[in-house]
Design brief:
Two copies of one chain form a homodimer. The longest helix of chain A is centred in the middle third of the chain and has 21 residues, at about 210-230. In chain A, about 45% of the residues lie in helices and about 20% in strands. Chain A folds into two domains: about 1-170, 3-Layer(aba) Sandwich (Rossmann fold), CATH 3.40.50.1970; about 175-355, Up-down Bundle (Dehydroquinate synthase-like, alpha domain). In chain A, the strands form three sheets. Chain A has a seven-stranded mixed beta sheet with strand order 1-2-9-6-5-3-4, with helices on both faces. Chain A has a two-stranded antiparallel ribbon with strand order 7-8. In chain A, strands 10-11 form a two-stranded antiparallel ribbon. Chain A contains 13 helices and eleven strands. Chain A is an alpha/beta fold. The mean pLDDT of chain A is about 95. In chain A, strand 3 (about 35-40), helix 2 (about 45-60) and strand 4 (about 60-70) form a beta-alpha-beta unit. Chain A has helices at about 25-30, 45-60, 75-90, 105-115, 130-135, 175-190, 195-205, 210-230, 245-255, 265-280, 285-295, 310-320, 350-355, and strands at about 1-5, 10-15, 35-40, 60-70, 95-100, 120-125, 140-145, 150-155, 160-165, 330-335, 340-345. Chains A and B meet through helix 3, strand 7 and strand 8 of A and helix 3, strand 7 and strand 8 of B.
């Protein structure tokens, strides 16, 4: 399956399918020079880096590999600087292509490296987790975390192509699959009620790693993301709806120092909170919130909600959120399945009441 | 004087004149939010930061100041990370505006900070050196140096406006003035023979800091730069001609660890080398090279050519130049006053012969 992200001179294709990575024709349609550097981590690299390098070698591409430690704790300026060092030592010039082989952390780091090496070189995303395939690999958000907040440093910088190989999902731990499914559910809530129904019906198959159903989910998720990103590349309007549940999620991740929840789990919990806030604001029927709640409960993530968080520290964390503008809290809320909008009108009082139900 | 850099949705204005910085109307026409951060250095800050902050305060803009040590040795990831830290600590959000108040180092650092804070916020250039006014403040090149080379890390990221206050040139040391004039001469060589003649006629006035003639030089230089940048924002073609003399200059700067020559001085020497190479390649008449040489000699920079450099290390340094592509050396050469082009066909042998005349 081939999708297009319609971004004018920055347009690119997403290829989705089984075994794509090892097929030479995949790379024929991707822009790539004579040299490349694969950025990967120590979980994914041992599984796929050689395969990818061999495929590219057959096409005459000389490929270096940069491997970092797996996990969110690698998403730092130091990891990014280490990529810069290798690029400098190996003298990669403006014709080189970076290839992000891994999950969201690898994609964000490699993308930021591509955005900033020699003022910008090409990069391709080869996402190997469901979360990265349906979310972070598409849209050009790149960057690293700062001690004071997630993704504070980065750039909007579009990849030149995305290769989502469904085979990589077969080696994915359940927690990672669940994290991706949380974002998949998000697309249903914010943009497509029918897709939400599809997930309700197929969740057991998706959780069991059924490749056909996962393929359908990845394709529809990427279609929605591509459409939203094409309409608003730099998140000045529509694109904000992709952050449904994310303001809560970022606060949860920051306060637990990224150690207790992975990003998708935090988003799953955050979406339940956002649905609750939508009801409190009078935007959403309680019955729809319950439907959202029931679906997310099947992911078995709500019990992972960290203990001991205070409402005050949650609100403090919202204040540092990137989406906060001139001190006003911003939340993406839903008006019903398939519809989401940003609200700047949430009162602290109402927010506290909603948080009380969870903390 | 008001110029336009025609870059579509990234278009912006350059305001050039005496005393612009302290005039409120200057800032009415510049996009700026309710909060700003002035990035400056410990030479320029004490002279102008308060004046700028007071002017902005009268317009209701709350302005923080970040001051770094003056000089190329500040153009590092560490200095950039310190700006990120202050932005994080003071919680600057996406509505903030960075203002680069200083020379090229400050402009490149502040621009890169703007490119990478929260994936990109607005910034304005307020260049206070001739070099920055005629070169680095226009065009969106931002970044820092890497231990293995100049400007290896950075981004193309356009400012939202440029304010060139000619009054700031009155406090400029002669070496800084000379550095700027080297780039001014470059515009004549690569794009405008009449402008080259103007500089030949007015060089004494320019060197004496005559504001009227400097104003004319800044305006014409900015016009040429704006025109070239608008035609080729990301340096994939025409824009390369702006690098006339720069491949030599970067090698000289790298090999002397940025300690002996400032950038403009290196460019002045580099242009003489580039003219010599143009003659050796059969592109340029010896008489025109002599005219270029005579003009640059009046800047009294050729005697600053570092001693003890070897041809081998110069060629080694060219190899690491950003403009090198897939190992082929690229030099911008001139075919006569007002005309420059990139050559990929220079042989090492010929290059060695040219370098022998200087080293």
């Amino acid at each position: 399956m081939r999708l297009q992200v319609a971004l004018g001179e920055r347009a690119y294709e997403i290829l989705i399918g089984e075994g794509m990575m090892a097929v030479e024709s995949t790379w024929h349609s991707m822009p790539i020079g004579e040299t490349a550097m694969v950025v990967t981590d120590n979980h994914v690299g041992p599984l796929y880096a050689d395969r990818l390098r061999d495929t590219l070698a057959a096409l005459g591409v000389q490929t270096a590999v940069h491997q970092l430690a797996a996990g969110e704790q690698s998403k730092t300026l130091a990891s990014w600087a280490a990529i810069m060092d290798q690029l400098a030592e190996e003298r990669h010039d403006r014709t080189t292509t970076l290839i992000a082989l891994g999950g969201g952390v690898v994609g964000d780091l490699a993308g930021f490296a591509a955005a900033t090496w020699l003022r910008g070189v090409r990069y391709l995303q080869v996402p190997t987790t469901l979360l990265a395939q349906v979310d972070s690999s598409v849209g050009g958000k790149t960057g690293v975390n700062h001690a004071l907040g997630k993704n504070l440093i980065g750039a909007f910088y579009q990849p030149s192509g995305v290769v989502a190989d469904l085979d990589t999902l077969s080696t994915l731990p359940t927690r990672e699959l669940v994290a991706g499914l949380a974002e998949v559910i998000k697309y249903g809530i914010i943009r497509d009620a029918k897709f939400f129904e599809f997930i309700e019906q197929q969740l057991d198959a998706l959780l069991a790693g059924d490749t056909e159903q996962l393929g359908r989910a990845v394709v529809r998720a990427c279609e929605i993301k591509a459409e939203v990103v094409a309409a608003d590349e730099r998140e000045s309007g529509l694109r904000e709806i992709l952050n449904f549940g994310h303001t809560f999620a970022h606060a949860l991740e920051t306060l637990t120092e990224y150690a207790e929840l992975n990003h998708g789990e935090a988003v799953a919990i955050g979406m339940v909170m956002a649905a609750e806030l939508s009801v409190a604001e009078g935007w959403l029927a309680a019955s729809v919130r319950d439907r959202i709640m029931r679906l997310i409960q099947r992911l078995l993530v709500l019990e992972r909600l960290p203990k001991g968080l205070s409402i005050d520290e949650m609100i403090e964390a919202f204040q540092s959120d990137k989406k906060t503008r001139a001190g006003r809290l911003r939340f993406v809320l839903t008006r019903g399945l398939g519809h989401a909008e940003t609200s700047e009108a949430v009162s602290q009082e109402r927010l506290r009441k909603v948080l009380e139900r969870f903390l």
